[in-house]
Amino acid sequence: MEEKGFGTEELIVNMGPQHPSTHGVLRLLLTLDGEKVVDCEVIIGYLHRGVEKLAENRDYKQNIILTDRLDYLASMTNNLAYVQAVEKLMDVKVPERAEYIRVTVAELQRIASHLVWLGTHAMDIGAMTVFLYCFREREEILNLFEMLCGARLTYNYMRIGGVSCDLPDDFAGKAYKFVEKFPKLIDEYEVLLTKNRIWLDRTVGVGVISGEDGIDLGLSGPNIRGSGVEWDVRKAEPYSIYDRFNFQIPVGEKGDTYDRYLVRMEEMRQSNNIVKQALEQLPEGEIMAKVPRIIKPPKGEVYHSIEAPKGELGFYIVSDGTSTSPYRLKIRPPSFVNLESFKKMIKGHLVADVIAIIGTLDIVLGEVDR
Amino acid sequence: MEDYIKVKREVGNRKDEMWYAFLQDLKAGLCLTLGYLFKKKITMQYPYEKSTAEWSIPLRWRGLHALSADENGRLKCIMCLQCMKICPDHCIKIRFSGAGKERVLEEFTVDLSRCSACGLCFEACPVNSITKAIVPTEKYELSVYSREGLVYKKEDLLKNWYDSVKSRIALEKAENMKKEEVKKEEKSVES
Amino acid sequence: MNPETMNELINYLIFGSLAFIILASAIMVITRKEVVHSALFLILCFFGVAGLYIQLRAQFLAAVQILVYAGGIMVLYLFVILLVNRKVIEETKRSKSFKKIFILVGLVLLLEFVLIFTGTVLKEGVKEKIVEESFNMGSTEYIGGILYTKFLFPFELVSLVLLAAMIGAIVLSKRKI
Amino acid sequence: MEGIVRDVIIALIKIAIVLGGVALGVAYSTYLERKVAGWIQVRFGPMRVGPHGLLQPIADGLKLFIKEDIMPRQADKLIFYLSPVICLVPAFAVLAVIPWGPDFYITDLNIGLLYIFAVASLGIFGIVMAGWASNSKYPMLGGLRSAAQMVSYEVSLGLSVIGALIFAESLSMVGIVEKQMTTGVWFVFLQPVGFVIYFICGLAETNRLPFDLPEAEQELVAGFHTEYSAMKFAFFFLAEYTNMIVVSSIATTVFLGGWGSPFAFLGIEFPRSLGIVKSVLDFGMPIFWFLLKVFLLMFFMIWVRWTFPRYRYDQLMNIGWKVLLPFAILNIIFSGLEFTLYEELDWYLFYPLAWLIMGVMVVFGFRLIKNFDQFSYSKMREEGIE
């Protein structure tokens, strides 16, 4: 009998693009040895719409709606990043009230985005109920945004030089009510997860990535803060009016899934805090700066990045000075860059960890493929 | 205040050992969900129920387009083509005849199959007498059986306006303004 | 027809059908091309044997037969079959030396059966004695009692052997000690 | 001759009642599952079909009945057809020995519990075969997982009831209940650790969360029944819920006093003056108590499912072999001691002592197997040992 015939064989499993827990149309080509992942190839591009190319043929104002569709779970921050990039290019001073409104909605958006992350991450690991609790709270934020700008997902709210419309009368009250009760609800999620032994088993030591590796791979956002790297654009290079608020950035130590979970949970609390402060300090005044009706920035180029819920979101815009549409627009999407680390994180883990790690990376395919 | 804080990571704590041995972590979760069993439910029974005490469709909702008319039933549109130009998806089509002040609106079509509900057309409209000329309504049930059904003609858009709550609000506002004007005139006459 | 002959007839009918199931499924086991099918028929065969035990009033044995053989061992067989590459199985099946061994084993077994049957069952009076003795043999109490009195030493010995096997399995499966 | 015919007819009637009842119970346990899930998640659950969605199970059944039956081209046809049946039949066969009431059971075997374990262990073939026959990768992985899972947990499941059996001194299901009635103590009070182990293993055997790895929908899409549709899928579904009922009924019989009333210690009896009502109550109340206990256990299973995350495959194995099995064996050793104490001591001495020893056992056991315990396993990784 020949001995080589009894060797084990690797199994190649195609996970996605249609799979319940790849968070969209991500395709993973997994090579399995039993249940162990030996190799993994990440295949993207199923949701490519050519946003960057489209932007070259639309004017600056119309491009705002394209940014809505990048990370469709956090349209507000996408708007903010783009709008601020153009403002930087044109050197526009945004009125105080608009800045406060921007910070309020951006932080509410961060909470909403993290809620979706928590819900789907927990659901991938099997805790269905957390998902519905999270969506209950997200719904309230969406209701607020709906009241504010008339849309629930693709807001198209920010404008170059300010915001499109002022807060409705009852917005501040409702938002404040939400902010008041939200920390208690975070505690509830924590009861279900933080100390639960199953949750600990599934997350502790899974998908570990060290700070150095994270920096090498260009990780950003909660993903790199989970590894103990103190990097947050809001603190490192404060944009808008973030330097006026009292808040802290949570940082993990080990860089595993559990740390990233803790970081995001704490981030929700801090964001909640910022919203509270912003609502309290909200000044009266204009919501739009004086910008020309047809936006034609001077010749030049600009890169501006903000701290989106998923990480550092940057817009690089080149203007030729004569056209009303950008000569070139390049997006640095956090999800796309964060996904790079997937291969490094998954090596040697089991099939079940694949989805745990996709969950912890918090990717949105709209942003990955653009 | 420090900018960065370490998260509290309590894994494998010695003091929690007995807590885990007697399954207390599981008990805590179970108690929470049991509590929720008897709490008030938040589901809205759509389509039987279209609004609740907590939520109803807001006035700013970017729903179906409508062409607004004044209290005499005349379209407010001045055929400036601003909305057509700003629309990123080219879904508005306007045709008019005549020139100058005698322009007549012949065609105003909104193709919802292309529309991405960005709301730029509503914003671009320069008309501002109580409402803009093209306004979003609160309607959100837009499904139809054929693609042709998604193309809204001038008459449909006007009908949308009269169907929506906004026309009533606008009418009330207009009446109020008239009354106030009348009052003002009376006052000025008196003085 | 009086009740006793009726009972006997029913007994024979049951035995006949069980025997048929056992034999037929046993033949199927060795003739099927697909190994999983063979495994399924083997389970059926086990069931037939369990049925025979029940007819002999050895309910405990029947239950254990199903629990251990059908429920435990066959699952492991299936597990192995699912894991092993089909090609390997086919090659093994085609190999001629294996066939020779199997035929040899079969012949030896047949010989044993012939010896046993001529030595016991077919002898005068033995059958009745066996029937009489085995009337209570199958019950749980009887087996429990006999295991802990008459066969205590062998029982303990077997458990020791099993323990050794268990430790051996752990040591073998552990890659580094 | 007449006797045989009568026996057969009575048996058939009993079987019909039990199977019909259980089938209906299964249908409505899906309703219960969805309702409880809904309520826990602050929603309503099914509401549309019938008042409060009461006809939902029937609508679901009809839907599954008229759905297109898809057969993968590469599948092994015979086994693909057979495996849902193989899955369902043992689940129903087990019902034969479950004593719903003192006079209401299909049969009483003197090896009752053994029969249940023997037959119940067969359901796994359906799953493994389904995984293999589909000839597709996700079902295959699901089938393999379930084979390993069922085999592992069956061991602890069997060992966990032995403590109770020491006290019952019988394997017959009716005998076990009657023993609890005569001594007046439910075995759950004598064997809480055994009960907990049994219940956890029961969750694993029925593939319920946190152990629903064979069909973990987030990883393996639907596990072994990914390729199944229509009635064949319905069979798996039926089998799963029937198994839930079976596991709950065994727990009720062995640990929770079977049909015994929880208020039996008050010594209340229905007065003779009630006449025929008394005999109906005498027949009906035990069945009611039994069903109530089964219902509560099933509710608990559902409740657990909608609260916890899911274990990973290797962790599941670790728990089965390195936590539950040592505890089950410890429990057996303890049960021997407990039985001696039970015979020797009065109840006011016995209970505090037994429970104290039990507590010490749990603590000691947790410490002893700590290095294998999942939670400490995380801690170990935390400290970088692995």
TrEMBL record, chain A:
Gene3D superfamilies under this entry?
Cytochrome-c3 Hydrogenase, chain B (1.10.645.10)
Pfam families in the record = Complex1_49kDa
A Gene Ontology cellular-component term: plasma membrane
Q: What is its main location?
A: membrane
Entry's EC annotation: 7.1.1.-
Similarity annotation: Belongs to the complex I 49 kDa subunit family.
Summarize subunit and interaction data from the UniProt record for this chain. NDH-1 is composed of 14 different subunits. Subunits NuoB, C, D, E, F, and G constitute the peripheral sector of the complex.
State the function annotated in the UniProt record.
NDH-1 shuttles electrons from NADH, via FMN and iron-sulfur (Fe-S) centers, to quinones in the respiratory chain. The immediate electron acceptor for the enzyme in this species is believed to be ubiquinone. Couples the redox reaction to proton translocation (for every two electrons transferred, four hydrogen ions are translocated across the cytoplasmic membrane), and thus conserves the redox energy in a proton gradient.
Identify this protein by name: NADH-quinone oxidoreductase subunit D
Query: Which gene specifies this protein's sequence?
Result: nuoD
Automatic annotation (TrEMBL), chain B:
Query: Would the keyword NAD turn up in this protein's UniProt record?
Result: yes
- Residues that bind [4Fe-4S] cluster 1: 77, 80, 83, 125
What is stated as this protein's family in its record? Answer: Belongs to the complex I 23 kDa subunit family.
The coding gene here is nuoI
Q: Which reaction does it catalyse?
A: a quinone + NADH + 5 H(+)(in) = a quinol + NAD(+) + 4 H(+)(out)
Give the E.C. number(s). Answer: 7.1.1.-
Give the membrane topology.
Peripheral membrane protein
Task: Copy out the cofactor comment.
Answer: Binds 2 [4Fe-4S] clusters per subunit.
Q: How does it assemble?
A: NDH-1 is composed of 14 different subunits. Subunits NuoA, H, J, K, L, M, N constitute the membrane sector of the complex.
Against InterPro entries, the record matches this protein to:
4Fe4S_Fe-S-bd, 4Fe4S_Fe_S_CS, NADH_quinone_OxRdtase_chainI
Q: Which cofactor does it need?
A: [4Fe-4S] cluster
Naturally occurring in which organism (per UniProt)? Candidatus Schekmanbacteria bacterium GWA2_38_11
Which residue intervals define the domain 4Fe-4S ferredoxin-type in the entry? Answer: 65-97, 106-135
Q: What protein does this entry describe?
A: NADH-quinone oxidoreductase subunit I
Alphabetized Pfam families for the sequence? Fer4_7
Record HAMAP family: NDH1_NuoI (MF_01351)
Alphabetical keyword list: 4Fe-4S, Cell membrane, Iron, Iron-sulfur, Membrane, Metal-binding, NAD, Quinone, Repeat, Translocase, Ubiquinone
The UniProt entry's GO CC annotations, sorted and at most eight, read: plasma membrane
Enzyme class, one word?
Answer: translocase
Residues that, per the record, bind [4Fe-4S] cluster 2: 87, 115, 118, 121
GO MF terms listed in the record are: 4 iron, 4 sulfur cluster binding; iron ion binding; NADH dehydrogenase (quinone) (non-electrogenic) activity; quinone binding
**What is the stated purpose of this protein?**
NDH-1 shuttles electrons from NADH, via FMN and iron-sulfur (Fe-S) centers, to quinones in the respiratory chain. The immediate electron acceptor for the enzyme in this species is believed to be ubiquinone. Couples the redox reaction to proton translocation (for every two electrons transferred, four hydrogen ions are translocated across the cytoplasmic membrane), and thus conserves the redox energy in a proton gradient.
| Record's subcellular location | Cell membrane
Tell me yes or no: is Membrane among this UniProt entry's keywords: yes
Q: Which PANTHER family match?
A: NADH DEHYDROGENASE UBIQUINONE IRON-SULFUR PROTEIN 8, MITOCHONDRIAL (PTHR10849), NADH-QUINONE OXIDOREDUCTASE SUBUNIT I 2 (PTHR10849:SF24)
TrEMBL record, chain D:
EC? 7.1.1.-
Q: Per the UniProt record, which residue ranges are transmembrane? A: 7-29, 78-100, 112-134, 155-177, 183-204, 241-267, 287-308, 320-342, 348-369
Q: Which UniProt keywords apply?
A: Cell membrane, Membrane, NAD, Quinone, Translocase, Transmembrane, Transmembrane helix, Ubiquinone
Superkingdom to which the source organism belongs: Bacteria
Q: Does the keyword Transmembrane apply?
A: yes
GO biological process terms on file: aerobic respiration
Q: Signal peptide location in the record?
A: none
Coarse class of the protein's main subcellular location: membrane
Recorded topology in the membrane:
Multi-pass membrane protein
Q: Which reaction does it catalyse?
A: a quinone + NADH + 5 H(+)(in) = a quinol + NAD(+) + 4 H(+)(out)
- Summarize subunit and interaction data from the UniProt record for this chain: NDH-1 is composed of 14 different subunits. Subunits NuoA, H, J, K, L, M, N constitute the membrane sector of the complex.
PANTHER family of this UniProt entry?
Answer: NADH DEHYDROGENASE SUBUNIT 1, NADH-UBIQUINONE OXIDOREDUCTASE CHAIN 1
The text of the family note is: Belongs to the complex I subunit 1 family.
| Purpose | NDH-1 shuttles electrons from NADH, via FMN and iron-sulfur (Fe-S) centers, to quinones in the respiratory chain. The immediate electron acceptor for the enzyme in this species is believed to be ubiquinone. Couples the redox reaction to proton translocation (for every two electrons transferred, four hydrogen ions are translocated across the cytoplasmic membrane), and thus conserves the redox energy in a proton gradient. This subunit may bind ubiquinone.
Protein name, please? NADH-quinone oxidoreductase subunit H
- Identify the species of origin: Candidatus Schekmanbacteria bacterium GWA2_38_11
